[in-house]
Amino acid sequence: MAPRKSDDDLKRYYSIGEVATKLGVNTSLIRFWENEFSHIKPNKNSRGDRRFTKENISQLQEVFHLVRERGFTLEGARKEIAAGTQPRPGKQEIIDRLTEVRRRLESVVGEF
């Protein structure tokens, strides 16, 4: 039996609010990073609302990892991305899973 795809697997575009929730940051920070990192270019609809693809989310996760988790400055993160020393996709998946585990553990500890 084939595994069922979740709604998240079937989505093509995500709103800025969904992306912010996924990363655990404010929407204003997403807009700021979009302005600071020229490679992040979400699609915009006729009203100007941002629509992020999975690739855009991956780019934002990389920025989040460099700036928030590794402590890079914005300029340092730009240089790291330009140098092409980005984590391999398999490594990024592991980082994402561990980040999710950490969030769950923090929520459990917060309940006590």
UniProtKB/TrEMBL annotation:
Keyword DNA-binding: yes
Organism: Neolewinella aquimaris
Classification via SUPFAM superfamilies: Putative DNA-binding domain
Pfam families: MerR_1
UniProt keyword annotations, A-Z: DNA-binding
GO molecular function: DNA binding; DNA-binding transcription factor activity
SMART domains, per database record: HTH_MERR
Entries under InterPro entries matching the protein: DNA-bd_dom_put_sf, MerR-type_HTH_dom, MerR_fam
Protein name: DNA-binding transcriptional MerR regulator
This protein's record includes keyword Mitochondrion: no
Superkingdom of origin organism: Bacteria
Domain (HTH merR-type) ranges: 13-83
